[in-house]
Fold Citrate synthase.
Amino acid sequence: MSNEKAVLHIKGKEKIELPIINSTVGPGVIDIRKLRESGYFTFDPGFLSTASCESKITYIDGNKGILLHRGYPIEQLATFADYLEVCYILLYGQKPSKKEYEKFKSTVTHHTMVHEQIANFFQGFRRDAHPMAVMCGVVGALAAFYHDSLDVNNDIHREIAAYRLLSKMPTLAAMCYKYSIGQPFIYPRNDLNYAENFLYMMFATRCEDYKVNPVFANVINKIFILHADHEQNASTSTVRLAGSSGANPFACISAGIASLWGPAHGGANEACLNMLEQIGTIHNIEKFLEKAKNKNDSFRLIGFGHRIYKNYDPRASVMRKACHDVLRELNIQDPLLDIAIELERIALTDEYFIQKKLYPNVDFYSGIILKAIGIPRYMFTVIFAVSRTIGWIAHWNEMHSDSKNRIGRPRQLYSGEKIRKFD
Ligand code: SDX
C-alpha cells in the first residue's frame, strides 16, 4: 500500500480520500471500498475500469501485446513448455523441478478416468446436442461423485479437486465427441502425454491400433498452452463470482464453461470459422468489412478485437505461425486460410480497424488449425474449455486463499419506479 491517495470532491460532502495501491507492474488501483459511506456507488458496466480482485497469476499489457503467466512470457511457454508444465506454473507459481514435474504429471495421468456411471449421463442427451451443453451438465455432475473434495476451505480438498478437473476434462471432452458420432468411449492411456491422450481418446477406436500424429499432438499442446489463462476474462470472473459463495469447484467450473460458450468469448473460434465460410471467397471480404463497420448491422468480424489488446494478441501471432506450419506439414491447401490471411491483411490496413485498434485475437487462427487436424467445429469451444480449466482453477484457488475474499455482491444504478401504491 503506498501513501498516495486519490481525493474525491462531491458537492455538499466532505472530501473523500481513497488510498492508491500500486501494482508490481501495470496500472495501480484506487481502493474504493469505503466509497459507499459517501452514499455513492461507482458505475462501470462491463468493468472496463474495474479491478475485481488482486491476483499474481497472469499479467496482460494490452497496448504492448504482452501476456505473462507468473512472469513467464506466453511466447516462451508456447515454444519451450509442455502444457502440464504451464498448469503447474499457474497453480503453484513457478516452473517445476524435473522431480516436481514428473510427480505432477503422474498424478494427473492417474486421475484421467471418470467414474463409470458418468457414462450414463450422456445417454440423456440427444446425439446432436451441442457438446458445450453436455459439458456444462457432466462437469457440474462431478460434484455428485466426489464428496471427498468439496470443502472449499480445505486446501487439500481444493488441490484434489484441481487434479480431478485438470485430469478429467480431456476425457469428458472426448466422450462428448464419441457420443456425438455414435462411437464407443475410449479409455485414457497412461503411457501417453496430456495432448496425445486427448487425441487418442478422440480418434482411436476399439477396432484397431491408433497412433497419434506427433504434428497434431504438438499443435494441440500449443493450443492448450495459448488458451490456459487470461486474467479476469468473462468466464474466469464467472468462476470467481460463483466460487465466492462457497460453491463447490465442479459447479464453479461448470459456470465457467457456460460463460465461455458465448460467441463474444470462447465461442468465437467456432463462430470465426462459420464467418470465414460465410465470406466464402476473398472477393467478398470488402462487403463483409463494410457490414462490420455498419453500426446498424449486428455483424462483427469474429476473431478481431479484444477488450484489452489494442495491439496484436501475442497468442494470435504464435497461432498464426502454428497454422502455417501445420498446413505445410500436412500439405493442406485450405481456402479458408487464404481468406483469413487476406482478411487479416485488409483489416490491418483499414482505417476503421486501425482507429478502433481491432487486431486478430487468439480465436482467429485456432479454428483453421483444429479443422486441419480433423476436429469438428462444434468441438472447438470444448477444446478451449479443456485448456482454460487450469486457469479457472488457479483463480478459484487464489480467491479462496485470499483473506480479502468476500462473497461477490455488486450494487446497481437504480432507474426504476419510485415507491407507489398498488391498490
Ligand atoms: C476471447 O477477455 C478475454 O481475455 C477473452 C479471451 C480469453 O482468452 O479469455 O481473450 C478470449 O474471448 C477473445 C475475443 C473473441 N471474440 C471475438 O472475436 C468476437 C468479436 N470481437 C468483439 O465482439 C469484441 O471485440 C470483443 C467482445 C472481443 C471486445 O468487446 P469490447 O471490448 O466490449 O469492445 P466493444 O464491443 O465496445 O468495441 C469497441 C468498438 C465498438 O465500436 P463503437 O461502439 O466504439 O463505435 O469496436 C467495435 C465495436 O462496434 N468492434 C468491432 C469488433 N470488435 C469491436 N467492430 C467490428 N468487428 C469486431 N470484431
